[in-house]
What does this fold into?
Amino acid sequence: MFVVEWLMVEAYYLRTFLQLFHIPHYTTLQKFAARINGTLLERIISSFILLLTNIGKIFTGIDSTGFKITNASQYYAERTGLRRKYAKLSIGADAIQQIICTVKIRRAPTKHDNIYRFQANYNKQRRQISFLSLSVVTADKGYDSEDNHILVREQQHTFSVIPARYRHVPIWKTYGRYRKQMKRGYCKALYNQRNKNETIISVIKRLFGEHITSRLVRTQNRELSFRCIAYNTHRLTNLTIIRWFLQSRVVYISQLSNLLA
It folds into this structure.
């Protein structure tokens, strides 16, 4: 239902780009979502990076966020003692173009859940976009682990920027060679590119909401995948419009300079 409302109200240029003159009924999309394979949706998400030109290496940013499974307010949950449940969406995105490459969806975070999501998302990204190489991998302090650095640097020969937690702990007490390097210092310009992952998550929640309408776990996972596909389509449309506008400006300026000459 949220996709239909978004297409009708906000996605005018997207509908024009896709030549979508008739918006299907939301029950048609529900039947389609119940039958499509989740693996196919992940491949569709990864394929968006192919539509961009001049992409040789990917500047990867990994981050995660929670989506409410119920639409109950915080006040209602506190008054009734309702336990608020979340679906954790972990994304691996190209921080330069702000395109989602891979997703990993889980429930109820457990011990070392951040480490698991980082490694699972990173390995999936290496498999699904193996035709492209990764230049830098960034993540916030929640993914601080020596195993994550070893996976990126030694096994895949890529540079990682993951700041170490517990800044009050001295370097000589910090475990791990790469975690000690992070405490000694790292390139802030590279790490600040990770903020674009926050932008991606913010856009998804502002466009489609922060709660999930589906009830079954399977359909909830597919709903989040559809939101990522809708975001990639929205972002790719904006990039296409911006590129066309810049090209038209260059042509106009060149023609004007020829006339003045």
Remarks:
- The chain has a mean pLDDT of 80.
- The longest helix spans residues 217-260.
- The chain has one domain: 2-260.
- Strands lie at 57-68, 86-94, 99-107, 133-138, 159-161.
